[in-house]
Design brief:
Elements (H helix, E strand, L loop, with lengths): L44 E7 L6 E7 L2 E8 L5 E5 L3
Antiparallel strand pairs: 1-2, 2-3, 3-4
């Protein structure tokens, strides 16, 4: 029985054995090496709690060189909501 899509630009898949399968990213080399951050070279971060009250989320600001870089909100159920600040 012929395929419904025959003659409409559809090409039947080529059957091959599964041992020749190669993933999309396999065999490809990265053009740029991944740069690892050196923790000792990072700028010192200053954490300051700006709001803390019984039964409410705690709000903390993380700063580098006097500029806020992120706001961390500690939710009552233990989750963290982190907001990055980019200038």
């Amino acid at each position: 029985m012929e395929s419904y899509l025959k003659g409409r630009g559809y090409k039947e898949p080529i059957e091959s054995d599964s041992s020749s399968f190669q993933g999309f990213l396999e065999g490809q080399k990265s053009s740029t090496p991944v740069e690892k951050k050196d923790e000792s070279l990072e700028k010192p971060k200053d954490k300051k709690i700006i709001y803390q009250e019984e039964g409410c989320p705690k709000v903390e600001v993380v700063s580098e060189e006097g500029r806020p870089t992120s706001i961390i909100i500690h939710l009552p159920d233990g989750r963290l909501l982190e907001i990055d600040c980019h200038y």
